[in-house]
Amino acid sequence: MFRLTANLFPVCVASLFASALVAAAERDDGMNVPQSSGGALYIEYCAICHGSDARGDGPLAATLSVAPPNLRRLAVLGGGIFPTERVRQHIDGRNINPAHGNREMPVWGSAFKRARGAYGERRVEQRLDSLTDYLHSIQEAQ
After folding, report:
1. pLDDT of residue 112
2. Could you give phi then psi for residue 58, rounded to 5 degrees?
3. Tens digit of pLDDT at every position of the chain (142 positions)
4. 126-142 burial, b if ≥16 CB within 10 A, otherwise e?
């Protein structure tokens, strides 16, 4: 029979506490949700069309009816100002009016909502923010 000695008790308590912290970090209730790296999200979801360097030359770019834009030039095209909210809304896609034309780009807000066990809205928002921040960080100078 195993007996918990006084020396092992603090180790067991620390282990249980660490397990609880990990579980809390993995919960999707809006508390302690780790924010994913925008660069990693970009590679996972965007690079297939926009290219690994975001210049619009991904492996699927040639198969699309509308060429993916060079995402490194969004600030240049915006007169030196990165259009943060417009980019975020375009990535999200859930509030884009279908009357404004076809959309070949996936509606990532909905996709993130369904991905890997149905993310909650707070996690979806964090992923959209991470992607938008990443795109802002790779803008070319004028």
Report:
1. 86
2. -70, 170
3. 445 444 434 333 333 333 333 333 333 333 333 445 999 999 999 999 999 999 999 999 999 999 999 999 999 999 999 999 999 999 999 887 666 556 778 899 988 888 766 668 888 999 999 999 999 999 998 7
4. bbbbbbbebbbeebeee
Dist. CA 109–CA 96, nearest whole Å:
11
Phi and psi at 116, nearest 5°, equal 40, 60
Q: Which two tokens stand for residue 124?
A: 């979806």
3-class state of residue 42 by DSSP: helix
Nearest residue to 70 (alpha-carbon basis) of 59, 58, 83: 58
The predicted model scores a pTM of: 0.70
Tokens of 81: 């100002």
Backbone φ, ψ for residue 99 (5° rounding) = -70, -15
How many residues are there in the chain?
A: 142
Q: Which helix (H) or strand (E) holds 23?
A: helix 9-26
